[in-house]
């Protein structure tokens, strides 16, 4: 048995364990920018190069399940590792030999995503989580929304066809309240504010500056795409429960951080395209990307 057979075998075992651990929702519908519905695709468009960014921190046991559900035809997979103390990097390289590994110097999910985004070379960038809460098999739905006219496709657990096996009543209430505040302040019609499954044209990064370090990064991105007047599509998505390890989410602490971002952005001047020189975090992470890639 060769290395390729071993990789496929490991992925198959992970996928079987994954399906046994939880019931998946049926194939979902895709909400397009014009409000039309069509059957959710299962393949990536042949004419778009898709980059997937996955922040990790001690996710060695979860990565086999995540990589087993990645769609075929991806341009690149970028893992941004926050100094894991387990075998996260080795597992990623074994499962996907072409994976690009970046070592994160700054703490926080926002900093990890900024680093990953700066290294992307594809036409479309997709961000997912490494704990298997976001399903990589849904990536074609998000990419299809971008291909069909959206600048930014954001996942929603609260659209028909979406759902969550992980969200607690407290987090659901907090998300609903914060979502309402954002819709009122920014004139949006979002159904889900704090969810980490998004896809967008790489050119969006010329204007969408990611300069916050923590979990509030999803809210920041949702607000800024609205302020920029970009076309946004919400895509129904199912959030699964974390299989291994403990979540770093803290509802009260993180909720307050999100609220601060909402208020701060409301009184910040409108953003247009900005050069990297005036985007401190993005520029710093971009400069670091070439220095910290793991071969």
Short summary:
Helix content is 38%, strand content 16%.
Q: In words, what does this structure look like?
A:
- It is a single chain.
- This protein has nine helices and twelve strands.
- Strand 4, helix 3 (88-95) and strand 5 form a beta-alpha-beta unit.
- It is globular.
- The longest helix is centred in the first third of the chain and has 19 residues, at 3-21.
- Residues 1-8, 10-37 and 271-291 have low confidence and may be disordered.
- The protein has one domain (3-294): Alpha-Beta Complex (Spore Coat Polysaccharide Biosynthesis Protein SpsA, Chain A), CATH 3.90.550.
- The protein has 295 residues and is α/β, with parallel strands linked by helices.
Give the tally of β-strands. 12
**Share of helix among residues?**
25-40%
Our count of domains comes out at 1
The residue-averaged pLDDT reads 81
Using the coordinates shown, work out and report the CATH topology.
Spore Coat Polysaccharide Biosynthesis Protein SpsA, Chain A
Number of DSSP helical runs: 9
Strand content: 15-25%
Pattern of helices and strands = HEEEHEHEHEHEEHEHEEHHE
Largest sheet: 8 strands, mixed
């Amino acid at each position: 048995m060769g290395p390729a057979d071993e990789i496929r075998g490991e992925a198959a075992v992970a996928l079987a364990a994954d399906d046994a651990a939880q019931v998946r929702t049926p194939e979902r519908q895709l909400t397009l920018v014009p409000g039309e519905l069509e059957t959710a695709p299962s393949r990536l468009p042949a004419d778009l190069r898709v980059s997937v960014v996955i922040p990790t921190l001690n996710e060695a046991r979860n990565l086999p399940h995540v990589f087993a559900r990645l769609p075929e035809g991806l341009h690149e997979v970028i893992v941004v590792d926050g100094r894991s103390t387990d075998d996260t990097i080795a597992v990623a390289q074994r499962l996907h030999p072409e994976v690009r590994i970046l070592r994160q110097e700054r703490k926080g999910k926002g900093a990890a995503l900024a680093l990953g985004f700066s290294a992307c070379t594809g036409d479309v960038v997709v961000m997912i989580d490494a704990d298997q809460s976001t399903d990589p098999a849904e990536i074609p739905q998000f990419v299809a929304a971008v291909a069909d006219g959206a600048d930014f496709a954001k996942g929603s657990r609260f659209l028909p066809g979406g759902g969550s096996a992980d969200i607690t009543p407290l987090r659901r209430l907090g998300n609903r309240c914060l979502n309402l505040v954002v819709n009122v302040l920014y004139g949006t019609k979002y159904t889900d504010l704090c969810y980490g499954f998004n896809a967008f044209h790489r050119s969006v990064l010329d204007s969408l500056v990611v300069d916050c370090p923590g979990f509030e990064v999803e809210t920041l991105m949702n607000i800024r795409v609205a302020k920029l007047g970009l076309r946004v599509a919400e895509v129904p998505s199912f959030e699964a429960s974390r299989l291994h390890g403990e979540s770093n989410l803290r509802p009260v602490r993180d909720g307050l951080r999100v609220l601060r971002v909402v208020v701060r952005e409301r009184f910040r001047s409108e953003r247009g395209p900005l050069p990297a020189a005036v985007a401190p975090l993005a520029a710093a992470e971009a400069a670091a990307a070439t220095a910290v890639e793991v071969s």
